[in-house]
Amino acid sequence: MLPHYSQSAAYVTLVQNAHAAGAKVLGYVYTDYGGRPSSEVQTDIDRYYAWYPVDGIFFDEADDNDCTLEDSYYHLLYNYVKGKAASAIVALNPGTGTAPCYLDSADIIATFEGTYSTYSTSFSTTDREWETPANASRIWHIIHSTGSESEMHQALTLSRQRNVGYVYVGIDTYSALPPYRAAEAEDVRDWNASLGGALTWLRASNNATTNTYRFEFSGTYQFHRVYVDTNESAGSGFAHCGIGVDYLIENGSPRSSRSCSSPAPAGWSVARSALGEAASPNGADACFEVETANDVRTTSARYHHAYSDESGPIHAYFAENDGSNIRYQADFDVSYAQKHVFIDTDSSSATGYTTGGVGADYMIENGSVYRYTGAGSDWSWTSVGASSMTPSTTGATGTTRWSIARSLIGETASSGERSRLVFHGQVSGGATQYFAPPYVHVFGN
Fold first, then answer.
1. Which helix (H) or strand (E) element contains residue 116?
2. For 9-194, CATH number?
3. How is domain 309-445 classified at the architecture level of CATH?
4. Is 278 in a helix, a strand, or coil?
């Protein structure tokens, strides 16, 4: 985390080294519990993004239970940071149990900051109803004044019992790294390895009448779930995995409760009307989860399902991915000679090729992938590789599928990646063409 001081060449080097090691770097900004003018806070945010390639902002001295302040102050700051980059991480540090409304204004909330003595003997359980295993990826505990290696291990054990996904254990109040840091890192690595594989190929897609949910996983589990937030509000419904759940799909049709071994898919088809999602345009948030018989869970990050528009000749479109590859799919009712997927990797219509409501940085045209090298509306592209396209006949109607390596379009981070997509078809000569509305691809692990 970068401190709130001034620009420094030494910090530039530290940020570069941290990124090379796969770490995320956040800029530190204090808010004086909502009392600091938002204009001053925004100035600090601007400075970090001008000075360094930061991955987000850590808001210190955050309020913890005033939902009016959350909406009028912290949510605006959240949107301001996300305006810098859609993948930016927003962390709040109230340092104590926090009202669930704050989930709308942060990706991660530090709900404990204090000494090991307090953490081990007088930990407060107030305002922690949302701190469930499925929300582990939203919870951070900062434990200082941990004097010995044995206390460090005990602190990590307690953090797991308290459903914490991010934890720092230090020997003092942040002046130096602890002498047991290597043992701490090894403890965390071993724990992560014990949890089983990640959920991959996350997919929520639809046609005019039906939603399809699907994911793949490694391990053996008794329960397979999809949580769906139809009004996209973490403040209503059951608070779980960072969303406000309105509907839960657990096992059931088409799959009954059973064990599955690695690698295995879980999938469901559900009538849109059963979820009250018959309108267009619309969207929903979701998360995916597996759980063993002895309560060990693996839960995905929040996934946004942008419903495909079923009124046009290109429909039932979606994107999904694992750690290395991306699949794109759409149904074509017209025999287009050229089929495109325009990919806006920075989610900014101000950069890239301006088309269909996005600024495309990359394009799949039939069986090839191109990077945009022009400006604005200039048709200037450079080939970067091949896409497998099924069927290979470009003029075929029906379902077309593409598969590309994530590295071809620079979407290689383990989390936080997203792109805006437009599926497009054009008859030879350009006389007839159709742009599907923009679709948001939220990358899985």
1. helix 116-121
2. 3.20.20.80
3. Sandwich (2.60)
4. coil
